[in-house]
């Protein structure tokens, strides 16, 4: 009889606890209405630590009940690390679901190919509100550049264009590290060996790739344009690439006139033979690959047709005819 009474008491306690836990999941936050509470689950945090932090932040009442709720649902080991935004309308059960489903706060930010550091800063300012001035300054800080593993004076050319997950509390340095890490992943050992085989440093290859990025409008011309530039470099000819002049003036994509071609700048490849001192934008993988694997062509010249494609020529006479043809089409 005593055993039956003990068992009944235990069952009653368990049932009462279960009922309390089930009821608890519908308890609301102990915070003001219409507020959003940022909350971060760090990697390696235990359920008890998460529950305690939630109680300390005033997000839930009674950490022990939150922990029991997670165990009751069978998700005691299912809390996902990440940054979350907990809204005041959420009850304990909704908060637990958000954490176990990993519904982290994230901004999907697309950084296109061919942007300079200031242009990248403007994109990020518009999308996630970063301080663009600080971004530009940190990207040009030699000590910071070295700390990121980039062997260059600035991060021009090394802010890899891609779509990123960016979070509200990320700093400028966090973002620079994220973008340069993607670049470092892209430049594989095979790419480094190929650059060495061609007789160029990785920095020179990225510089060439940045010019290809600005010149190529269609993918199937990247390796041809690369072939033209490699041919000119091998012959000691000036590259005469308009985007390098625009970069030296400080106005990418500006309309160039004859007077601009004599603008004094180390980046002006109409004045200086060889590659400019560094990249003029951030090239994507396709342009980096093209710089490393140029198409074997005889071309030394090309001119834009106005529709995104180019006319390629072997001789200067052919090139002049192509330029005249383009002028007639534009008129």
What does this structure look like?
There is one protein chain. The chain has 331 residues and is mainly alpha-helical. It is 49% helix and 8% strand. The chain contains 14 helices and six strands. The strands form three sheets. It has a two-stranded antiparallel sheet with strand order 1-2. It has a two-stranded antiparallel ribbon with strand order 3-4. The chain has a two-stranded antiparallel sheet with strand order 5-6. A hairpin with a 5-residue loop joins β5 (301-304) and β6 (310-313). α10 crosses α13 (285-292). The chain is elongated. 29% of the residues are buried.
Low-confidence stretches: 1-24
Cα Rg? 30 Å
Helix fraction bin: 40-55%
Average pLDDT confidence is: 87
Task: Kindly state the number of beta strands.
Answer: 6
**What spatial form do the alpha-carbon principal axes imply?**
elongated
Q: Strand fraction band?
A: 5-15%
Give the ordered list of helices and strands.
Answer: HEHHEHEHHHEHHHHHHEEH
